[in-house]
Design a protein that fits this description.
- This protein has 92 residues and is mainly α.
- It folds into 2 domains: 48 residues, no CATH class; 43 residues.
- The longest helix is centred in the last third of the chain and has 42 residues.
C-alpha cells in the first residue's frame, strides 16, 4: 500500500496538477453519492408502484421544467440589471 503525501489543494489547483484533479473529483463524489442513494431508492419505489408513480413523476417533471424556465428568466433579468449598474458605475 502506497501512502500519498497531503496535497495543498489551493496551490495544486492553481498549478493544475493531477493530485488537485483527484481532490476535486473526490469532493464532487462526496456530494453526489447521497443523491445517487436517494435516486436509487426512488427507482425501487417506482418499480414497485409503476401506475401510482407515473402520474407523480410527470407532475414533478412538468413543475421542474416550469421552475427551470422561471429561473432562467429571473437570472437573465438579474444579469441585465447588473450589467446596467456596472455600465452606470463605469461611466461616472
Amino acid at each position: 500500500m502506497v501512502e500519498e503525501a497531503p496535497v495543498d489543494t489551493t496551490s495544486a489547483i492553481a498549478r493544475g496538477s493531477r493530485a488537485a484533479e483527484g481532490v476535486v473529483i473526490d469532493k464532487a463524489l462526496e456530494r453526489v453519492v447521497p443523491w445517487g442513494f436517494l435516486i436509487s431508492i426512488g427507482a425501487l419505489v417506482g418499480a414497485a408502484f409503476p401506475r401510482e408513480t407515473r402520474a407523480v413523476t410527470k407532475m414533478a417533471m412538468r413543475n421542474s421544467f416550469r421552475a427551470t424556465e422561471w429561473l432562467r428568466g429571473m437570472s437573465a433579468e438579474a444579469m441585465e440589471k447588473g450589467q446596467d449598474v456596472f455600465v452606470e458605475a463605469r461611466s461616472e
